[in-house]
Amino acid sequence: MDLQLTHGLVFLTWTTAVMIILIGIFVIKVLFDLSRLTNTMNDTANIVKTELEPTLKNVNETVEIVSTRVKEANNIVTNVEDKVKEAARQGKKVLTALGGGLFAVSKLAFCGMSNFIKAKLK
User: How many whole angstroms separate alpha carbon 33 and alpha carbon 14?
Assistant: First the structure.
């Protein structure tokens, strides 16, 4: 019985040693693969960075140009709006000043025309 126990323990020891070696090999392989993956991701990030920097620079310049144009257009619209408001105020003053006179002239013209037509009809 002692011999069987010894053989069993030796087999268990060798099996455990082989399993530890296999697990160690897998751990080393995983670490190696992770290292390669990290290097590849770093290279990809550098490539993306070098490709995107000029594009982003162009986009920023374009946005600045568009922003400048929009501000200029806003200033022009504001100026035109102010001029239209001022013209409307001046026109209202003129119409208010002429309103009484135009009404009187049109009333006289209408009455005169009316009297002329009545005279012709009689």
Answer: 29
For 39, the token pair is 């290097």
pTM listed for this prediction:
0.46
Residue in the structure block whose two tokens are 């594009």: 55
What is the C-alpha to C-alpha distance for residues 83 and 86, in angstroms, rounded to an integer?
5
Q: How far is it, in rounded angstroms, from Cα 19 to Cα 7?
A: 18
Instruction: Answer yes or no: is 46 within a domain.
Output: yes
Q: Report the run of H or E that residue 73 belongs to, with start and end.
A: helix 2-121
Scan for tokens 């144009």, then name that residue. Answer: 69
Helix (H, G, I), strand (E, B), or coil: what is residue 122?
coil
pLDDT tens per residue, range 30-63: 999 999 999 999 999 999 999 889 999 999 999 9
For the chain, what is the domain count? Answer: 1
Range of the domain at 49: 1-86
